[in-house]
Amino acid sequence: MYEGAVQDLIDELGRLPGVGPKSAQRIAFHLLQIDGPDAQRLADAITRVKDTIRFCARCWNVSEAEECRICQDPRRDPAVLCVVEEPRDVLAIERTREYRGRYHVLGGAISPIDGVGPEELHIRELLARVGEEPVEELIIATNPNVEGEATASYLSRLLTHHDVRVTRLASGLPVGGDLDYADEVTLGRAFVGRRELGA
Amino acid sequence: MANYRDQGIVLRTYKLGETDRILHLLTQGRGKVRAVARGVRRPGSRFGGRLEAFSHVDLQLYEGRNLDTITQAELLAPHARIRTDYAASAAASLMAEVVDHVAQEGERDHAVFLLLRSGLQALDAEPADPAIFVDAFLLRLASAVGFHVFTDACAVCRTPGAHVFLSVKAGGALCADCAPTGTRAVDRPVIDAVALLARPGEWTVLPGLARDQPAARATAASYARSFAEHHLDRRFRAYDAVPRP
User: Fold this and answer.
1) Is B211 found in the same domain as B113?
2) CA distances (Å), A180 to each of A144, B46, B170, in order?
3) Distance (Å) from the alpha carbon of B145 to chain A's nearest alpha carbon
4) Tens of pLDDT along A2-61?
5) Which among B13, B86, B97 has the least Cβ separation from residue A154?
6) Which of B52, B78, B104 finishes a domain?
7) CB 3.0–4.6 Å: which of A20, A48, A80, B183 could bond B179 by disulfide?
8) Does A185 reach chain B within 8 Å, measured CB to CB?
9) pLDDT at residue A91, as a whole number
10) What is residue A44's predicted lDDT score, i.e. its pLDDT?
């Protein structure tokens, strides 16, 4: 155990994801050694992010204003809504530069075994948006794992009586991979979702 | 460290670090195994979709101090239809949650393994009313680990007969002499429904029960839940997620 402030810092760092007690100690002593202004910048960045960042009132993405930049952008197509689990996923899709619609962040995925049900996610808000905004297509882009598929299936059931087209991101072979290493589930889905060449 | 090969069913997964997962598996030869699948969350992972929950897989692992590590995986049965249907997925989650609770590491239990495999197969084959498979699974699993529900004899004095008193604590049907005062008598079809749910092996007859006797089935279903939760000593979180008619 170290004295007061140092130990407090180690304890706080140790609560971060992926940081064990040993790494926490290493980072704490690194922070002790660096110049005052450098450490202050880190402290300021943490304070600022907690003070200014909140969730977009419309899509639940992280935002500095009442509504996030994407929701405010008039060039984004309001007829297409892409439903994702986490704000990180918005960033991943933005990086593709393929999508010009808007988003809705659920804040997780349905997981019965962890006790996470539809009420814990921003599904009610999604239904409200489908009713109020001129949405024509919902692209469900939850993760292709058990929780993500359960969420997608739940949403498609819920939206059957709404006048909106519900689509799911395609699953298939990873670009740059070998066919004989693909598992049966993925390869099977790639077959079901095959497309005509040149179309 | 030692390599070994076994087949198992993925019960549940936890994220670990950036791209790994910890898997809880029910194996055929070693009971519950906790193992790491490295890189499985990366899109280009060599495991691909093989190690998703509810998959039945043939595995190569090596032993670690805490967790074993999966080195190879081949699919035996993906049970892929379960994962694309919300109700079936919730039902399979409940089955996995219960098994994860009762199975012990290093203790082989072939009856539980076969029961889980057949339960998932039933869900995969006919996902129309998954709740009925859940009801049956709870009673059959309780029986497989030693809490058998009595339906054609009194649970206390073992006198055979078509008794009409039903008790969770005593372990099934009770004759009029053994039933404590205040025990509620039920209709005989309810006890017949409980018996059908608990009978090992038969999954295909269950949707018929749900269709033909909705009232008896509903009472039997809530009995199955109380019975499993009382004797296995745990409230199952996924239970309320399973849609019921």
Assistant:
1) yes
2) 21, 10, 56
3) 21
4) 778 899 999 999 999 888 889 999 999 999 999 989 999 999 999 999 888 899 999 999
5) B86
6) B78
7) B183
8) yes
9) 95
10) 94
CB nearest B84 (choices: A115, A153, A186): A153
Give residues 82 to 121 of B whose Cβ lies within 8 Å of A: 83-86, 89-90, 93-94, 96-97
Residues B139 and B43 in one domain: no
State whether B68 and B85 are in the same domain. Answer: no
Is the CB of residue B53 less than 8 Å away from at least one CB of chain A? yes
Question: Residue A137: is its pLDDT beyond 80?
Answer: yes
User: Are B74 and B90 within one domain?
Assistant: no
Q: Are residues B61 and B92 in the same domain?
A: no
Residue A112 in contact with partner chain B when CB distance is under 8 A = yes
Strand residues in chain A grouped as ranges (E): 54-55, 62-63, 77-84, 101-105, 137-140, 165-168
> How many domains does chain B divide into?
2
Domains and CATH numbers, chain A: 4-52 (1.10.8.420), 68-196 (3.40.1360.10)
Percent of chain B that is helix, strand, coil (3-state, to 5): 40, 25, 40
Q: How far apart are CA A60 and CA A87, in angstroms?
A: 8
Please check whether residues B132 and B232 belong to one and the same domain: yes
Alpha carbons within 13 A on the beta-carbon side of B199: 13
Residues of A within 8 A of B75 (CB-CB) are: 183-185
B116 shares a domain with B57: no
Contact (CB<8Å) A153/B93: no
User: Has residue A75 got a pLDDT over 80?
Assistant: yes
pTM over 0.90, yes/no = no
Q: Cα angle at A37 between A32 and A42, to 5 degrees?
A: 75
CATH number at residue B237: 1.20.1440.120
Considering B78, B110, B138, which residue would you say is the last residue of a domain? B78
Residue B14 domain boundaries: 3-78
Counting as low any pLDDT under 70, the low residues of chain B are 1
Shortest distance between the Cα of A15 and any Cα of chain B, in A, equals 14
- ipTM score of complex: 0.83
- Check whether residue B68 and residue B87 sit in a common domain: no
**B46 → chain A, closest CA residue:** A181
Residues in chain A: 199
Long-range contacts of A53-59 (CB under 8 A, 24+ apart): A55/A105, A56/A105, A58/A129, A59/A102, A59/A103, A59/A104, A59/A105
